[in-house]
Amino acid sequence: MRDGGSTLGSSPFRVGAWLPGGLAWLGLVLSLVLLYLRLSAEDPSIVWRVWLSSDTLYPVNVFTDVFHDGYGISGWRFSIAPCWFPDLVATGLFLALTGNVVLATLLAGFIQIVALVLLFKAFRVALGLPRQGAMGPILLLVAVLLTIFVANHPGLTDVDVFQLFLPQSHVGSVCVALGGLALGIAIARREGEGRSAGWTMVGGYVVLCVLGGMSNLLFLPNALVPLTIVAVAFVLLGLLPRRAGALLLLGWPAAVVGIFLNRTLFRVTDLAAQAGSSRARIRTALVVFTRGFFSNLLSGEPLHLAAVLWAVVCLAVGWLALRSALASRSEDQRRTQSLAAMLFLCLFLSSAAGCAAIVLGGSNGLAVFKDYRWSMHYLHPTFLVPLFGLPAVGAWWLQRARPRAVRWVGTASSVAACALPVYALAGTKPPATLLQAQVPPMTQFMDELAAREHLRTGFAGYWQARPITLFSRTGLRAYAVDGSMTPLLWVSNLQWYQQLRRADGKGFDVDFVVLDDPLWKLSREAAVSVFGEPRREVRFGGTRVLIYGGRQEAPSPVPGPVPVEVPTEARPVPSR
Fold first, then answer.
1. For residue 539, what are the β-bridge partners?
2. 18 — pLDDT class (breaks 50, 70, 90)
3. Contact 182, 129 (CB under 8 A)
4. CA–CA distance, 428 with 40 (Å, rounded to integer)
5. Adjacent-strand bridge partners of 545
6. pLDDT tens digits along 95-126
7. Partner of 48 at 20 to 30 A CA spacing, among 89, 101, 190, 199?
8. CA–CA separation, 314 vs 309, rounded Å?
């Protein structure tokens, strides 16, 4: 039907244009809802150890500490990788929207898998390729499958897939690196076409590099090293204009500015605290990494198999595209193949350079702890990016080799992406209490103890302290210390400890000490040597609490965290 020269069928708002993609996006949202409901019903020992731990709660704690509790940002001592963007930014925005520390933390993690889907679609745009009907639904189906897998195995930490949904797990930094690569390729395309990239695109690239440098030093090997190597090589080969290469190299001074701002504006732990460049450390790191990688590969571990396949695909596609570009006489064909070669070679180098960085940097995880599995959380471009990259390449191949099948594959992927979480939700029993209304069992116990004993402030291990402070209903505060009972200034605020200093400046005045942290083995002997014999000792499961305070009157109110709704009945405490 025609109306004024336009047809209803050609309207961009027709149902057929957005329905497949809309179904797939709806499926991803429903799968995230499924994950949230499964976490709400999960064993508290898993939820508060893996999903809402002192590490993942660090970003939200910065905001509650500064904007609610009234402490200064100048007192904070941040880690080597403070993850300002997107982790802290996203957490702060979600905290402002929800007013709940649990929801803010989970949402800041959940959006990472959304960002990865969008970033791989951004690569298509950066290359200037036409819209591909199957890629979006396929990528969303992959995201749905990964989310359902984690929802069914929330305590499975031997497979790093769960980190896709957690802030402060280096996944956000990978998103920044992929964003930098996408903008770099887009700049190369614009300049190669004889058009100026424009201040908006170049400015976005520079700002992203500043944020990447501020947030995580791994941004350098994950984004700038690959772009630099490829840009220089392609300029020498005559496949990239010199101006485009110069614009891409602007990422280095921008990242340096970010690193400078991070260390000037904030107190950040020095890289030497977790790395070293001695020959012995590098040799040990190389041996541990090599043995760990090949033992996992030979045992058929899926992420390692995908990593090797991804490396082969990137090298193969990059080489074939590069050879085609050098041989092509058509300027358009030459440019298109050059950009494809740049992208896939950058993705390969991003994976390889990340591995080289932790080996040559003598990372503590490899050189000291000799824990290859733990070190994998630095290597998401190697192990997690292929989970999206391989399906994206499959969609691109389908578009070229079987164009008639694209529509059917896209539709089938969209339907599956929506149907699978619907089916899983239908078989999911609603939890008695949603996760944002729950309280860690240890915090509940400490609140009850504080009410009886009139406790206010004390010391605990790193993994115990933050959940106690953030989720206490009585305003109880616990601060992390190391094995010698001295302040552990790792993503914590020096001002917390300064207010507990005794008048004579010798030691701290605390009401309690929580022992038996999972990692920091705080011993009773160390506590007694510093604070003397406790007035009383109590136990909660395998955790001992030494009580030193004994106020007879109720304490005056102290600043507390953002209010969290607490269930009327305490959840059962699991035996451990």
1. 544
2. low
3. no
4. 11
5. 514, 538
6. 999 999 999 999 999 999 999 999 999 999 99
7. 89
8. 9
